[in-house]
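Researcher: I'd like a candidate sequence for this fold, 433 residues long. If you have to choose between options at a position, lean toward the conservative one.
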């Protein structure tokens, strides 16, 4: 006969209620019935800071309606503290018991949920009254999509009655030339290829004609030197190295095209993507074509007697200028440039003849081009300026017509247009959409 003691259900229930809940470290309930499980594990301290910094006094008191916690309890030294680093800091600095802390966490979780519901409600309301159709879901060439009558920039319905800020009511069109649309297969890379988007800077670095500058050299800006407080002013500029430097992008165009693909492999970049980018640049970019032909037609010894001059003429970089302009010239190595000319040295021989004060042992191997030069964008971003020096970037000479902010906004929002030379009317280039 079994004589063991039988524990009553009431006793078992009492034992359970005296055990600590593993989630909230409180007693008085079973773990599976813990009302703080979501708030302890799922709410971060940042939401308390948002709660204290954005909620009004009435709203905060409404959430803290239990009466056990007041807004005064959440102050430190008489001031509201809305930058807590951890929940432990809240409990320590505000003198809360563990139960009060759990209730506060539960309150903040509810605040988070309510904010999310408010956002979704507002979004539904906006979508109903003013629907916005984003890229890849709308035919932007359709007349149903609101556009600026001058530059054809897509507009929100609320912007239709306002002054056209995108192109200053057509003024920018008369001073900034349009870029050539990017080829379709390349555009697909830009828009859809996650690997390219992740490594776009690396890809651009293998095709650009310049790199970011360092602390020596000559600024290609009339006869002026670099700014007096370079580090403090955060001056941005690019460096055009001579082509004998294997890390120079110019080396790939003039001396060794295969090196670009070898470096791409070393940097874990896809060979197929590099070749997709390489073909249109060599076909359409006039500087890339010129440098490639120069390397094929001359031996290294012959190149030592040459320099390539990139002459900037502001009058050629306008919306009405001809697309054929003589901006690239081969000159003897002793031919000094004038004005806003950038000189490319195919070898180190002519470079150090020009700059005897620079030291190759200290990696001093390039000249500077500042951000106000008209070729800055062309040299630095060939993946967008596909025609090389035939495309127009912002320059110091343009500041009387367009500020750099106006120019940047226009480039960012305006689709590429085609201008009829007879009528002067602009139409959207089909490759823009």
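Model: Candidate sequence:
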């Amino acid at each position: 006969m079994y004589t063991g003691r039988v524990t009553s259900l009431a006793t078992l229930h009492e034992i359970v209620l005296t055990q600590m809940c593993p989630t909230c470290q409180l007693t008085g309930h079973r773990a599976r019935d813990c009302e703080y499980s979501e708030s302890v594990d799922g709410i971060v301290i940042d939401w308390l800071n948002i709660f204290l910094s954005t909620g009004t006094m009435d709203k905060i008191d409404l959430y803290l309606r239990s009466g056990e916690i007041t807004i005064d309890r959440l102050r430190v030294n008489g001031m509201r503290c809305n930058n807590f680093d951890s929940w432990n800091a809240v409990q320590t600095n505000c003198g809360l018991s563990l139960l009060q802390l759990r209730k506060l966490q539960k309150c903040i979780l509810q605040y988070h949920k309510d904010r999310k519901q408010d956002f979704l409600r507002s979004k539904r309301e906006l979508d109903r009254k003013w629907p916005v159709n984003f890229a890849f879901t709308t035919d932007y060439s359709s007349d149903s999509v609101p556009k600026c009558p001058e530059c054809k920039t897509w507009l929100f319905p609320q912007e239709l009655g306002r002054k056209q800020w995108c192109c200053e009511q057509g003024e920018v069109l008369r001073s900034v030339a349009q870029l050539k649309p990017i080829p379709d297969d390349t555009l697909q890379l830009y828009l859809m290829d996650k690997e390219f988007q992740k490594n776009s800077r690396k890809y651009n670095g293998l095709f650009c004609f310049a790199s970011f500058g360092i602390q020596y050299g000559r600024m290609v800006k009339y006869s002026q030197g670099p700014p007096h407080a370079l580090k403090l002013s955060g001056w941005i500029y690019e460096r055009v190295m001579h082509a004998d430097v294997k890390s120079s992008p110019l080396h790939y165009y003039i001396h060794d095209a295969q090196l670009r693909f070898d470096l791409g492999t070393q940097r874990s970049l896809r060979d197929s993507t590099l070749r997709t980018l390489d073909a249109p640049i060599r076909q359409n970019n006039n500087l890339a074509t010129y440098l490639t032909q120069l390397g094929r037609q001359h031996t290294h010894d012959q190149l030592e007697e040459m320099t390539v001059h990139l002459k900037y003429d502001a009058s050629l970089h306008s919306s009405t200028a001809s697309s054929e302009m003589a901006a690239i010239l081969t000159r003897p190595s002793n031919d000094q440039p004038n004005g806003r000319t950038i000189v490319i040295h195919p070898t180190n021989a002519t470079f150090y003849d020009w700059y005897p004060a620079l030291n190759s042992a200290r990696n001093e191997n390039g000249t500077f081009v500042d951000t106000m030069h008209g070729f800055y964008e062309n040299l630095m971003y060939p993946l967008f300026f596909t025609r090389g020096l035939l495309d127009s970037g912002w320059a110091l000479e343009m500041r009387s017509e367009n500020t750099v902010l106006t120019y940047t906004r226009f480039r960012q929002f305006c689709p590429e247009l085609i201008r009829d030379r007879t009528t002067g009317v602009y139409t959207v280039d089909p490759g823009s959409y």
